[in-house]
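Lab manual, section 2.4: Encoding a predicted structure.

Procedure: take the sequence of the chain (165 residues), apply the prediction step described in section 2.3, and record the output as structure tokens. A sample record is shown.
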Amino acid sequence: MSVMSENIKLVKAAELFGLTSEILEHGGRAWITVTGMSMYPFLREGKDCVELAKTSFSGIKKGDIVLIKRMDGAFVLHRVCRKEKDCFYMVGDAQQWIEGPLAPDQLQAKVTKIKRNDRIIDCNNPILKACVSVWMLVIPLRYKIFRIARVSKRIAVRISKKLFK
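Recorded output:
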């Protein structure tokens, strides 16, 4: 183990949002590692990083991933599912519960890029946008989709165990 790796400290992203906000206010961009499972399957906890950029209420639209600050001070990274004249609503990709209305001043940043492994995906990628559009249409069915996926995986594991005894 090198000396440098011994000095690395893992810190929850929320503990750095003060510094992150300052970087964004000065036109910079900040990368954070995703924590939590609410944005699965598009973002994976501990595996994916996202690039945050300062944005305004007029700069967000349905399908964008945004960072907001809740009234209790908690920071949340979810996807915009509806935008109205003076507020917006958001939902995690692994959730059906829609949060809102949220005030424009709760908006902290917008995700512009996603990094998984060594690959960086721009959030304007047409394939990603098409997948997001479909995923937004199935909000009421998400729990059923996840359940079918879990059951299918269990069945596949059982079959492979019997085949490869």
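Check your result against the sample. The helical segments are 3-6, 17-25, 126-137, 142-163.
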